[in-house]
Each structure stands twice: as structure tokens, then as C-alpha cells.
């Protein structure tokens, strides 16, 4: 069954490797926990709150960067409806029967993505989970038996392009999805299957297709403008945090020395001005 899904031909699959148990992105590092405990103790010391706010702002930015690096190996791709409505990508049933290896994207003027047929019934989730587990086990046992992570990558890809019922309906219209399983159940199926921590040692053909889809999607004016606005919003939020913290430090300093200048509420003025700019 596994070979009939992947391909009808025998070939040597790329070498794969796995992350060690407990090394996934959901696991919190012990050193990070100790640092958080230390920061909580520091809040008990008078006068340290403004400095801790600055440090926490930098830590938040650093943590977001680390999280992006950890999840970089997961297949990220827009949904079928997003690719069609925003980027003009059309999905079609592959004209040849070559298994899940026969996924390709034709760019430039055509912008068509060809996918193989998948039949989904009530027991499809159990079968897919078992086959993915079988593939990962065989790939982990030996690098020379011809088992890669092709099915796992295909399932990850389907999880990415199917977000809602509309995506399923569009694939049904093109005869890419068949079977008795309902549209909502198909959405739950692909949204409920977890991602694998294993990866190939080179870029597969499927990942090349994903790269082309993302490139076309990101190049559209609408997505480009949204991306620039999000980047600007993050920068402005960071500047607001730094400015507010510096103003707070100034006010604490002036209060300690018994000073009460007329611009003591400068913090509120800055917040109001920047908030009106953002809205």
C-alpha cells in the first residue's frame, strides 16, 4: 500500500535524520526557565522594574527569532483558496498516474499546480497515520533501504493547503479529492495530523514546488503590502516599548529627587500620539 501511494517504481530515497526526543519547539529549555525565575525575583527589588521591561522586550524579540529558526523545516504554504483568489493559482488533477511524486507547478502565465488523486473514506485518517509512522520508522532504522519521508512531506503539504471547507470543495471540483468522507471531516483530518520532526538531507521535488507557490504568492502586490505593514507595525511597537520605558525611568528618577516638572505626563502624550498614528 505504501509503495502504491508514493510511486510504482523502486528508487533510492534521500537520506533522512530525526531530532532527538524532547528537542522539539514545544519543549522549554531549562536555562530559560531559570532565567524567568531570576527575573521574577528581580521584580521584588525596588527600582528595577523599568530596566526589566527593557530586558523583556529584547528577550521577546530574540525568542520570536529562535522560534522562526526552529520551525523553518516545516512545510509552510498558503491554502488552496488563498492561492487561487490572491495569486491566481489553479489546481488540476495530474494527467499522469505517478503517485505523490507527481506533484508539480507550472508558473509564469499559466500558474497551475498539478496534484494526484486522493480518495478519502472513514478509515483514511487511521491509514494515513499508520503509513506515516511506518515510513518514519523505516527511515529511522536504515538509510539504505529506500525509505525517505515522501509520504510525510505530502501529508504536511496537504495540511498546509487545506484550511477550511472551501479548500476541500475546490479540490473536489477538480477531481483531486474523492471518496465518502465529508468536507468538514477532511478539514479536521488534515488539521489534526501532527507535523514530523524528520527531514531530508536535500531539497525534495515537493519542497521545490512549495517554494515556487510561495514565491508566486508573496510576489502579489496585496501580500507584499501586508508584509511591509506588519514589519512596520512590529518596529513601531518596539519603539513604543523602548520610549515608554525610558520615559518611565526618567519619571522615577525625578520623583526620587523630589522634582515635579510640568511635563511629568509626557509618557501619556507619547502613547496617545503614537496610538493615533497606528490607527
From TrEMBL:
PANTHER family according to UniProt: PROTEIN, PUTATIVE (DUF247)-RELATED-RELATED (PTHR31549), PTHR31549:SF279
Name of the featured protein: Uncharacterized protein
Organism listed in the record: Lactuca virosa
InterPro entries cross-referenced by the UniProt entry: DUF247_pln
One Pfam family cited in the UniProt record for this chain: DUF247
Lineage: superkingdom: Eukaryota
